[in-house]
Amino acid sequence: MLHFVPDSPWSIMALVLCFVLVCVFEFANGFHDTANAVASVIYTNSLKPRTAVIWSGLMNLLGVLLGGIAVAYTLVELLPADVMSPPNGAPAIPMLVALFGTALIWNIATWWLGIPNSSSHCVIGALIGIAIEDAFVHARALGPSVEWGQIFKVLKTLAISPAIGFLGAFILYLLMRSVIRKPELYTPPTQGEKPNSIVKALLIATCTLVSFSHGSNDGQKSIGLIMLTIIGIMPASFALNPDAPIHYEQLHQDVQSARPLITIYGNHSFRQEQLAAVDRLSSATEQNATPSLVRGDIYEILSALRSVADNPAIDPSEAKQAKSIANHLRPAVEYAPVWVRVLSALCLGLGTMIGYRRIVQTLGEGIGKKHLTPAQGAVSEVFGAGLIMSAGYTGLAVSTTHIITSGVAGTMVASGSGINPKMLLKIALAWIITLPVTISLAAFLFYVFI
Fold this sequence. Notes:
The protein is mainly alpha-helical. The chain has 18 helices and no strands. It folds into 2 domains: 9-236 and 337-449, no CATH class; 242-333. Its main location: membrane. It is found in: Cell membrane; Membrane. The chain crosses the membrane at residues 12-31, 52-73, 93-115, 154-176, 222-240, 427-449.
């Protein structure tokens, strides 16, 4: 696929296929992740399923629109710069097909089994697999060729957040039980029974919080992937941010300031390519610049500046300078039009409406030895929403599924009802094998398609 000529019919067809795949992936994301937001409100009969998923979809939309794009590009930056923007200007079709194919296959497989596995986990594993295979293809050592610092930052957050979700929900449930003594909050719902107005209002409120926070974090993840795809389809229109036009005099100053930092502290495996990007950007003007090539060079410099800032030998003032230069460059290439955010939210909402039932049943009946109570659902959602929302605004990529599921487990332990060991083992195995499976599958598909 790398031999497809840019703007040729085959290239455009492949990229349109990628655009469809990313929408389908976000639709499948709704099977898993947004179902966590509506599980309690549906399982306790607080809202009818259709009303719940429509409301959840609207709150997801609002979360995506107000949540920024920091998480979107935190994930995108896991990829090497030459994969996102190949030097010859060709669209990165093999990367996109391998990424979406891997994430879709694993997402649908775990959904079919009713396992609340994380879509974020799938995407991160696929991105790592592509980065590793790209290093092999170019005969580079894995150490300096993969953005390990960025990968470990994302994986650390992904690993710690379930433990925080479990412990936080455990403590919050005990506090709630000691303060609020309404028996109906701590009794599993019976078939067809509707909760009283207070319980109903509480669960609708927590559903709203989780849906909004999900949009502010998980909804961003597809935004970066959609942007990669539409930039490949129409680079002249989308490679650079039309709302933040490049001031080339400032660009020349920034990249020249970056040169000595890259020369001294940069990754030696990529130093020549990165300094070549500095030279090209130093001579770029509005008249002679090709948007896709300028974008590729800016990503090369951003990758270099991350390596510079992470170098343990660097002086703190120079590390601060590297981050400042990167902050000047990012707005030109890291952005998302409103219609991309709306598209992401719509795909999430539609996926929830179609596939929520399997995950709702797992959360309501499968995790604990007893069925989910309103208090357990509310506590896991309140704490989870706060954790997810704070991560969304700081650029940390966390998993809604991991946090809400572990929160439900925490409330089950706190209430003394215990955890279903078979379901817990099933979920744990899915979480453990997701990374190796998606890394291997994405690397294989990337190798095949190039």
